[in-house]
């Protein structure tokens, strides 16, 4: 059914009903009320005729369209646009209800707009998914009313559209653009001074003010000076060592199901993996992937050929957390069997207690002997907020003492890993991507990979 009555219609009906009740006691009011009723009926019929009268060219009088990407980015704000076109000869008042997927649990997708005849109005809003998978969009419902506003006509468009939610490729593109223009510092990536010349020699070029004097090639300068060249001073130009392997190891065990700001730790790790892998490819390194839990997961060999990032995205899209404890012995066996060349291994996992980390320490130490291992685990930000809140009662003091114990254990895990020469990164979930990129660039600058 496309015919609906408006609030104005029912309000006028209520006023007429009250008028007739009053006219029962004041007979002189009956005549004017009958005239008012007749005018109301005529206006209602005229309003319906305006909305439902067939047009000469037989086009739909109101056209609507939802414009969005073929896929949504998980954990990011995705733009959605609704186009409304009025083909009536008069202005219309519209109420647009977009039937978004139930996963969003939103009830605020009703938009009101006035559209003049022959014009188009654009409505913009954003959706932020927090889980990967397929999202089913319903119809785009447009309720149009004439200037009389007594009845409304419904138009339905875009019915039954399924959109997949992928790891945050929007975040990846943002970092990619900033990396291309050397503006990563705008999102918190640090400028890291290179230590020595742990890079590959590329060429000799003329000296320009600002070059490091230690890079001057004195022998080549002496030869050029002997030929009478005006710009005899030359320097050695180096480039970053390339084709190094960078593997992201993602824990899919139950410890990664913990949610922060709507996203699970696994989704934070997946988003960070996509961004870091893209940055590694931009730095001419090879990016690979290995997922694990209580059983082997997906594996993608490190590479940098065209299309490799798309393969990585498709694999990450299908990853789900498990409910069992992670088997780190299996991880070590898989790494030893699959990754033969020394590589940077970025291990995304989570340790809540020092004892829990110590049980996995033998396998971490073995991997660190053959590879450069970075263990990334997460700070409990909700615990930090609890610690910063004022303690007004004895119970609050007791709870904060327990919370401080857990926070201290996280710091002890960092120190314990450092003691065995294993690099670690304790980070808040929201800062995971930036902090991981910083570590990767630091390792590159220090020539560790």
Class by SSE composition: alpha/beta
CATH architecture descriptor name of the largest domain:
3-Layer(aba) Sandwich
Please tell me the overall pLDDT.
87
CATH topology of the largest domain: Rossmann fold
Provide the gyration radius in Å.
33 Å
Number of helices: 11
Q: In the CATH hierarchy, what is the class of the largest domain?
A: Alpha Beta
Could you list the spans in which at least 5 consecutive residues all have pLDDT below 50? none
- The geometry reads as elongated
Number of domains: 3
Instruction: State the share of residues found in helices, binned by percent.
Output: 25-40%
Biggest sheet details: 6 strands, mixed
Strand order, sheet with most strands: 18-17-14-19-20-21
In whole angstroms, the N-to-C terminal distance is 66 Å
Proportion of strand residues: 25-35%
Question: Can you lay out the helices and strands and say which pair or pack?
Answer:
Blueprint: E1 3-5, H1 7-25, H2 30-52, E2 62-67, E3 72-73, E4 78-86, E5 92-98, E6 110-115, E7 120-127, E8 133-137, E9 140-145, E10 151-157, E11 161-166, H3 169-180, E12 200-206, H4 218-226, E13 234-239, E14 245-251, E15 259-260, E16 263-264, H5 265-282, E17 286-292, E18 296-303, H6 308-317, H7 328-338, E19 344-348, H8 354-370, E20 372-378, H9 381-388, H10 394-419, E21 423-427, H11 432-446
Parallel strand pairs: 3-11, 14-17, 14-19, 19-20, 20-21
Antiparallel strand pairs: 1-10, 2-4, 4-7, 5-6, 5-9, 8-11, 9-10, 12-13, 15-16, 17-18
Helix pairs in contact: 1-2, 3-5, 5-6, 5-11, 7-8, 9-10
